[in-house]
Automatic annotation (TrEMBL):
<dbReference type="InterPro" id="IPR036291">
    <property type="entry name" value="NAD(P)-bd_dom_sf"/>
</dbReference>
<feature type="domain" description="Thioester reductase (TE)">
    <location>
        <begin position="8"/>
        <end position="244"/>
    </location>
</feature>
<dbReference type="Pfam" id="PF07993">
    <property type="entry name" value="NAD_binding_4"/>
</dbReference>
<dbReference type="InterPro" id="IPR013120">
    <property type="entry name" value="FAR_NAD-bd"/>
</dbReference>
<protein>
    <submittedName>
        <fullName>SDR family oxidoreductase</fullName>
    </submittedName>
</protein>
<dbReference type="InterPro" id="IPR026055">
    <property type="entry name" value="FAR"/>
</dbReference>
């Protein structure tokens, strides 16, 4: 019996990239994309574009209105029974990716939503695998080396996004330990495609790039503490897609947690220097305590408009965690996927930003 592949988070970036690749690897498989009512028109447009680009996958995807924040994913009994009746693979990609997200929304989508997905797959007659996208920042502000199998180490969290993704991963890990077949993927900060620089939103390191790019010949960059001692771990989006697409069917990834982070990340200072070099600027770093910067952005008139970044971003300029990706790198070697170093794709990142200044910072929720 052919496998049905259920996607949450379509038509977001990951779902739009992974759906055609998943159908491509199994010519008999069919996909079902769980879509909130408000995203249905966008989902139809995205699916039409994907099918036009790859006629071999046309007609193999159904768009179904649902909601992960509801028990049973908001599906009726007939749809539920149909999905659970045969071999089922689930890509749970839906989440709130926003550092400033309010607590109630973060818990509803990230935690309750993940619990509902796990409850749903437990009722499947034959679950092939639950592919769950988490984040490296389940680490919170752990001061030290955080390995792939680490999770609850008494860490504190910078925001509700980190905290709720941590709690959601605990739900998935508990299900895995109870026998649910799972692979957990933890991307670090994701930026544009390594070849084209294309991205759907400018956030995270793009705020630093924008601040540097809009200044004159000398770009003044206020940075906290010692930016040469803090790692900023970022990876291009195509690496994340390639890794998940390759590992999803791979037996060696079953019941593994994989940290899709850069094995050789730059420091905050090196990242800003690279942005300055690619925008033909001379970088001048001004030391400013993180607490003062956050207070100024949030409370002093004009400062927020000047820097054009949310204060929550500043926590990642002092992020104390180092991600150990030794096991993940070995696993990716087995499937032929490599994380390109930042120096290989920063040029494409900066060029895309220069040519597409109107891309926003909002993610699909």
């Amino acid at each position: 019996m052919p496998t049905t592949v259920l996607f949450t988070g379509f038509p977001g970036f990951l779902g739009s990239a992974l759906l055609p690749r998943t159908l491509r690897r199994s010519p008999d498989a069919a996909a079902v994309a769980l879509v909130q009512e408000r995203w249905l028109d966008r989902a139809r447009t995205t699916l039409a574009r994907l099918e036009a680009a790859e006629p071999a996958i046309a007609g193999r995807t159904r768009l179904v209105v649902g909601d992960i924040t509801q028990p049973g994913l908001g599906l009726d009994a007939d749809e539920t029974d149909a999905l659970r009746a045969g071999p089922l693979e689930v890509f749970h990609l839906a989440a709130v990716y926003d550092l400033s997200v309010p607590a109630d929304l973060a818990w509803s989508v990230n935690v309750d939503g993940t619990r509902h997905v796990v409850d749903f797959v437990r009722g499947a007659d034959e679950l092939v695998r639950l592919q769950y996208v988490s984040t490296c920042y389940v680490s919170g502000r752990y001061d030290g080396i955080f390995a792939e199998d680490d999770l609850a180490l008494g860490q504190t969290f910078s925001n509700h996004y980190e905290h709720t993704k941590h709690e959601a991963e605990r739900i998935v890990a508990k299900a895995r330990d109870a026998g649910t077949p799972v692979t957990i993927y933890r991307p670090s900060v994701v930026v544009g495609d390594s070849r084209t620089g294309e991205t759907q939103k400018y956030d995270g390191p793009y705020y630093a790039l924008q601040l540097i790019a809009r200044q004159g010949r000398v770009a003044v960059m206020p940075l906290p503490e010692d930016p040469s001692r803090v790692q900023f771990n970022l990876v291009p989006s195509d690496f994340v897609v390639d890794a998940i697409a390759a590992l999803a069917p791979y037996p060696g990834a079953l019941n593994r947690t994989v940290a899709l982070a850069n094995p050789a990340p730059l420091s905050v200072l090196e990242m800003c220097e690279a942005f300055a070099a690619h925008t033909d600027k001379k970088l001048r770093v001004v030391p400013v305590p993180s607490g003062l910067s956050k207070f100024s952005i949030d409370h002093l008139p004009g400062v927020g408009r000047l820097f054009k970044l949310p204060s929550s971003t500043l926590d990642y300029l002092t992020h104390p965690t180092v991600y150990d990706v030794t096991a993940t790198t070995a696993l990716l070697d087995e499937v032929g996927v490599r994380c390109p170093p930042f120096v290989e794709h920063v040029g494409a990142m900066v060029a895309f930003h220069r040519e597409h200044p109107d891309v926003g910072s909002a993610a699909m929720v």
